[in-house]
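Notes to self, DUF2381 family protein:
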Amino acid sequence: MSLPAFPLMLVFSVFQGLLPLGTMDCTEMQHIELSRMSDKPTEVCVSPHLLTGFSFDAPVSVEVQDEIRFEEVARGRTSIHVLPPKDLTAGERLRLSVTYLEGKSQETFFLVLVGSSGRSTRQVEVFRDQRTRESLEIEIKLERTKNQKLQDELVQLRREFKQLQTSTQDPRRLTRLISSNSMFIEGIRTQRVKLTGLKTQPGEISSQRVASYRSRHRFAIEVALESLHPQPWLVVTVEAWDENGQRAEFASIWQAAPLQMKETQVIVVEAEMEETSTWPKGTITLRLREEGPRDIIVSNIPCP
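result:
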């Protein structure tokens, strides 16, 4: 049987995907939004002896394919209820031709009833997209342009990330230090603290080695700690002050993992400090704190 010709054919999209013949996922409720840009008819699963109702958002005229076979077809101004044929087989398809009656040009679209054994969608709600085909085409074009722009930006970000990853993945590289003009002419200034001149707070965690580092823009302190305590220790805050009691702010703390018993581990704290800065003066004192009550105080740390 050939399909009738209409001035304007309106097809639609649904929120749920189409499944292979006879294997549709039947739900109690199905919501359909009609779109002029869709190229596939919507499928609705039906079953003999089970009533399926359709409600529309405007007055419609509905033609049912092989209507004479149906047990019952009840039409309303904005609805239709169908009781499928008793001999409807699983996977069999019957067409509903739905024409909206409002407006100068009546719009028509198709629904496809798909036979299912013992399963049926009880209620179908149908809504119409009021936008014109031209406006939808403009929106799609704008969306494609926007998506292409985002794709181009993503490609650029991936390229920049790869370049950054290449430049930073090897910690031995000097390129970043040189290109950022961070080093003095003689390099990074370094000064190690002699253990004989080192003052630490007595306890179960002790300092084994301390060194300070200075670039044009940064000041860092390296502290190697040893633990004799069974409880792991992880630094979470740092305080520092110079000989005059002036406080110093450290921007970052690095510790590879919590310090374990009978283990030596390095902790690095770093502060921003421009070359013209006068801080710190002389030596400084550093206090490292954990979440609990334990802390480490390291004194007499010079700035190179």
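- The helical segments are 133-168, 175-179.
- The domain at 189-302 is CATH 2.60.40.770 (Immunoglobulin-like).
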